[in-house]
Amino acid sequence: MTEPLTLSIDAMGGDNAPDMVIEGIEASLAHLSKVKFLLFGDRAKLEPLLEKHPKAAAVSEIRHTDEAITNEQKVSTALRAGRNSSMRLAIDAVHSGEAAGVISAGNTGALMAMAKFVLKTLPGIDRPAIAGYYPTLQGESVMLDLGANVDCDADNLVQFAVMGEVFARNVLGIENPSIGILNVGAENLKGNEAVKKASALLQETTLPIKFHGFIEGDDIGRGVVDVVVTDGFTGNIALKTAEGTAKMFGEFLKQALTGSLISKLGALMARSALKKFKMRVDPRLYNGAMFLGLNGICIKSHGGTDAYGFSKAIHVAEEMISHSFNEVIKEDYAQLSGHSREMKEAVVGE
Amino acid sequence: MTEPLTLSIDAMGGDNAPDMVIEGIEASLAHLSKVKFLLFGDRAKLEPLLEKHPKAAAVSEIRHTDEAITNEQKVSTALRAGRNSSMRLAIDAVHSGEAAGVISAGNTGALMAMAKFVLKTLPGIDRPAIAGYYPTLQGESVMLDLGANVDCDADNLVQFAVMGEVFARNVLGIENPSIGILNVGAENLKGNEAVKKASALLQETTLPIKFHGFIEGDDIGRGVVDVVVTDGFTGNIALKTAEGTAKMFGEFLKQALTGSLISKLGALMARSALKKFKMRVDPRLYNGAMFLGLNGICIKSHGGTDAYGFSKAIHVAEEMISHSFNEVIKEDYAQLSGHSREMKEAVVGE
């Protein structure tokens, strides 16, 4: 009998925590077996919830702490004063090796700072990035950075490209994933210095990477590339703009379909199709942002998600661990960054 | 009898030019009267088209030129060698006072560079910006910059805020429009240096401007503010990402509704509602990006648009002219930038 996979959970993180966390664990068990959860949080709140969810209770162990990081808390305060917080202790469990990965729906900035401080970055990575799935007409893509780094230089973008490539190949199982850099135009001359230099580096490279070149905003949804590389400022805004557009569309569609009796009847007839449509664009499906480039698996769930969304974030962690993402990325990255250095010297030397 | 409004048209700009240009003029006449068009382009191509569109012909005058700017042309080449191009001559007509505004569906970079070179910027404006309408749950917002300036500092963003405010107040008729700066979070501590400094300047200001603060990507579609201020890199990518998301949604919806006989029947019953929905999110409705900050009205139509879209761009020009946008902005801006200087000195002096 193999050892169960152990995941550590910041049970107090998220707008609807801890209720949705425990319900999310219960929901995840429909698809996961041989898993064990370390729940960091307030025992007095967690115990009554576990009593109501016996399946979750059977695979969970509470690690009590009174302290929790709030959404309003500054990153610096969280780092300094949050050593006994549920978030920090959940990360510590990954560092000590007790858990294979951590999931939190709490304060993104604090989670990234603590994870970076405790777990450290992988060799060759200057800055970790937040990566996420993005639905496209072709299936799904990976996009990074989604907000960890508001200012990025060309080297950061090249590192994101390499991490994204390894992720798409190993976790998504895409044989030769294509990489694109998000820009304001497809031509080489367009864009700011960082994207132009990163593109030059990736074009000249002998890296075994399929670099597509620049893509524009509307190419993301078209699924033109498997991996979308961008700085955290642009990536965060692009992703949230897409979410906002999706919500607006849903609302406009609802308003149109409930506008008259006949349209209501039509919508009723087409309800299974509309439900299928709704499921396909359900943001909860894409919940669970991956912190890439750290010495440990760390997944950020959307703060406002529900149990279904949280269960998806658990699955993302499980997927990365079962594909040995961090072991593979260490090997691949060592190899790729050797190439990358050579190639950079070649470009700079020109 | 009042003088007709004269608009100059780059008849050779755009993927489907000159056909869609002439058809667009014809379509615009359903809503415009007392208008006259100066058509810059190839007479041999334009004359047969005008014969087929007698209404357009009656209000158009061809100004022949063989030369046109292509989409592939570099901005520097267009500026240097494009003096007799249809685009350049159409802009010249605004500069000479013969036309009140120019519309082109050609190369965006070349149009902006030529318009800036020929028309010059308004006093106090370092860089013109591209502004566009954005549909929201509340109606519509104005967003700028959409791609004229890939790198922006805090002063540029403050100038965009002021121009956007004047636009929303005078052209959209919003009494006290609210302004937001696009960022990765709503808190003051978030974001890059440019947005943080611009926000500080606008917060401290005695300007009669309703500054909302930072907004996030999903606040755009929600209609949280009337004017969305951002740098051209982020703005271009956010807008195109929204367009791409809209297209993806439309495609998913179509696939769902044509998936079975019963859903097809339902869609048929709801067809007038679905048509209304489609019309509400039709990107052609929002065609016509405004170049703000120039000594003259210059409108950029989407390169791939059709006649309906081009007619909308003509309307945008007509609207800006009939609201005396450039006269008002000159007055308002002089007043506001006086405030702005004072306030900047105050902040810098701290």
Give your account of this protein's structure.
- Two copies of one chain form a homodimer.
- The first copy, chain A, is an alpha/beta fold and 350 residues long.
- Chain A folds into two domains: 1-119, Isopropylmalate Dehydrogenase (3-Layer(aba) Sandwich); 126-288 and 324-350, Isopropylmalate Dehydrogenase, CATH 3.40.718.
- Helix content of chain A is 50%, strand content 17%.
- Chain A is built from 14 helices and eleven strands.
- Chain A has an eleven-stranded mixed sheet, with helices on both faces.
- Chain A is globular, with a radius of gyration of 21 Å.
- The model of chain A has no long low-confidence stretch (mean pLDDT 91).
- Chains A and B meet through α9, α10, α11 and α12 of A and α9, α10, α11 and α12 of B.
Quick recap:
The structure is a homodimer of 350-residue chains. Chain A has 350 residues and is an alpha/beta fold. The first copy, chain A, has 2 domains: 119 residues, Isopropylmalate Dehydrogenase; 190 residues, Isopropylmalate Dehydrogenase, CATH 3.40.718.10.
Number of domains of chain A: 2
Question: Which spans of chain A have pLDDT < 50 for at least 5 consecutive residues?
Answer: none
Structural class of chain A: alpha/beta
How far the N terminus sits from the C terminus of chain A, by CA atoms, comes to: 58 Å
Placed side by side, the strands forming the largest sheet of chain A appear as 3-2-1-4-11-10-5-6-9-7-8
CATH architecture descriptor name of the largest domain in chain A: 3-Layer(aba) Sandwich
> Which shape of chain A, going by the Cα principal axes?
globular
Q: How many beta strands in the DSSP annotation of chain A?
A: 11
Q: Most extensive interface: pair and counts?
A: A-B, 63 and 63 residues
